[in-house]
Records
---
Amino acid sequence: MKDGYGRTIDYLRISITDRCNLRCTYCMPEEGIPCLAHGDILTYEEIETICRAMAQIGLKHVRITGGEPLVRRQCWRLVKKLRRVPGLQTVTLTTNGILLEEQAQQLVAAGLDGVNISLDTLDAAVYRSITRCGDVSRVLAGLEQMQKYPQVTVKLNCVLGGVQWEQTAVAVAGLAKRCPVHVRFIERMPLAEEDTQSCAQDDVLAALEAVYGAAQPCEKPMGFGPSTYVQFAGFLGKVGFISAVSHKFCADCNRIRLTADGKLRLCLQSDRMVDLRALVRGGRTAELISTVQEALKEKPQAHCFEQRGIETACMSCIGG
């Protein structure tokens, strides 16, 4: 799969639900959002059909997201289906971790290759404030459970903010010192008008080096996305950065998104979408390949987060 700028597209993020059991301040309004009707959401079988078609033209990596994917029943069934798709190399999951402890065994048995756990702080009170209702101990329990499965790559995603972000960064990064997990700091993208504060990558790295010493860059990629990684002496895991604003990586973008209701979204910020659900439910699966290839020609060259005043859908409506 090639877009209009010659970039190879081989990574698909699949939202399987718009529902979530948290209300994180930078992702979803406190009152929630109007949820899609059950019949509007793609079935696991329909997702498998789409992935089988796209795998024929180069799809290699899929990531299951939400909302919160683990609130959808038997998420492991989709993992198992996708692992059987010829051409797919990895099937991974992004979760807030609240339900991970109880579902980890089934997900791993189904063939999950990796899991990204969102964890913005280790402080219980701060976590509850950010998520408006979450219990960080449940996330940590899920993280501990995943340590039983060394064949699964575990990464922690941390979105920093607040007046004590330096202390938070040091504390969360410390998990990579004690455990074989990779901690990634993600710059907050200006998706919500009321919350545009961000901690730039260079500032975060400086705060970490002040405590843990000089970091060495990792030349070997640690996945198939835009993260860059460094290694601190004595750490079991690595520390990474996903910095869409301060270190724009659009030139190497390899991903597209599938929303829970079957829209192929070409860029996180762009509202250009193609309805794949209509093709699947209309029995027109043969058209999927050509439709995707034509759609990719319209993938934007880059996001425009740096331009103020551009309307962007909230993250909870986009899919993780």
---
Amino acid sequence: MTELVDPLTPVGAGMSTPDTQYPVTLTVNGQRRHVAVEGRRMLVDVLRQDLRLTGTHAACDQGVCGACTVRVDGQTLRSCITLAVQVDGAEIRTIEGMATSPEELGPVQQAFWEKQGLQCGFCTPGMMLRVEEILDENPAPTREEVREGISSNLCRCTGYQFIVDAAMRAAEIRAERGSEA
């Protein structure tokens, strides 16, 4: 006869508990970082609280709004629904890593500034990282392709027109700067 086991009760030696710490190594904005995290910690919390990179915003905590968007190994990802242990060893880019240098904005940042692609600024970090990914995949998108591409990120202030204008301007700046962008 098979014995029934309560799935909520840890069985056997060496089982983890909710407080078990796991070593995680991340390369964040080009800098290798080591953190110990509970298995249930979300990436957004590790970035904001442990690494003090507060440009990544937490809003819906359900992966719906896009405010927490970061790039993991080149792809945008919702950090509010991603466990930090899932991205162990990954390359992560946050809004803090977008500038070309301390003195020069990155092309997407420059375009958002020029074209007023923000109002309150809450969605802006995630939106900029999403636009950057769109332009990496298609350096000369149409306005409709940009609209479709940013539809995964919500903005409650701008009506999106200035964001689309900024994305189009960012494509121009990247083309002007060449491969450095």
---
Amino acid sequence: MAASLPQKPGMAGMPSQQQQQPPHLPPGAAPSAGQQPMPPQGALREISPVFLCRIGQETVQDIVTRTMEIFQITRATQLPNGVTQSQATYQDRFGKLQEHLRQLTLLFKKLRLLYERCVEMTSDLKEGPAELVPYAGEELVSVRVEPCSPAVIQERNEVLEKLRQKNQEMKVLMDQMRNLLWDINAMLTLRK
């Protein structure tokens, strides 16, 4: 059996994304439809933050899906305003709602653990996440701009010049349209 991931304290309860092959299958047998094939042993030891972020993205998608299902269940539920519905229907919907909420809490815990693990693995980076993506209302930190090649600068200047010309043409057209509408409105006013 392959070596398992070294887990951070508190990650033992996190559902594993990579399922191991059951012991009753021979080593060359393919896993069942619900299981993913095992990656090589070296891949288990070196899990990158990118892989964890991909798992986090899938977790966020699961959270959104579960939340939408909760909204669909609540939208389909009628308020008990004198209409008698079967108690079994309400109990079934209530059970589904409770299960979705339980799954949501587990997914949020999993997302939190993935986030903490990513932060732990990327703590040696020079730039922190706050420097990469500014929060609303924060001052923007000046970004060091590297010099561009002359070809890029020339292309930028050409595009800017084309943009200025197009803007000038549009301004002329807008002035002509404004004058035409003014004349039409003046003629309509004189007719009355």
---
Amino acid sequence: MDSIAQAEIIAVAIITGLAVISPGPDFAMVTRVALVRGRRAGVWCAIGIGCGVSVHLAYTLFGLGVVFASQAWILSLLRYLGAAYLIWLGLSAFWPDIRARLPGNVSERPPGGEGRPAMGRSARGSVFWMGFACNALNPKTMLFIVSLFSQVVSPRTPLDVELGYGLYVIACHMTWFAVVAAVLTLPALQARIRGITAWIERIVGLCLSGLGIKLLASG
């Protein structure tokens, strides 16, 4: 392996790592899911996020990434869809409070974060698709992937190596956010935040809505 190839691999590894761990919608999403629904749900959400990255990788590896990124209407459409989804997710954090104030209803929030529902197949699918949509509709992920493969990866790089890079990017997303879900659901941490879990969910909901509004304003 020549020095240029080694430098490319190192660059892809470092840039991807820094991009994945930077706070954003995916981090807020996993935080909310893990705190509200538990570790397994958080891990399934992380898997969904990784699979969402594969959407951007697919059209980029087919040579369509630069074309999409250069089309203002595509970026605008993705921005509007992503922003609407984030705002909806953020506002949904307050749905249990709204229902609790309606006549004949009680709060859907279990006190202290207790009583989480078991993770059935439908629940796993729900959090998986939440993570998938959060990433697939994120125009910043699109621009990151397109920039990575157009500016860092050489045009002479073999397709199998590019596929390897893609799998690495997916694995980084899944692994990092699964670790985040695992840390947030550690018994010691849960014992400390048990009484304020509902407030954390509200704060994360506000962050998600805020990110959606910021995404709208960025155009």
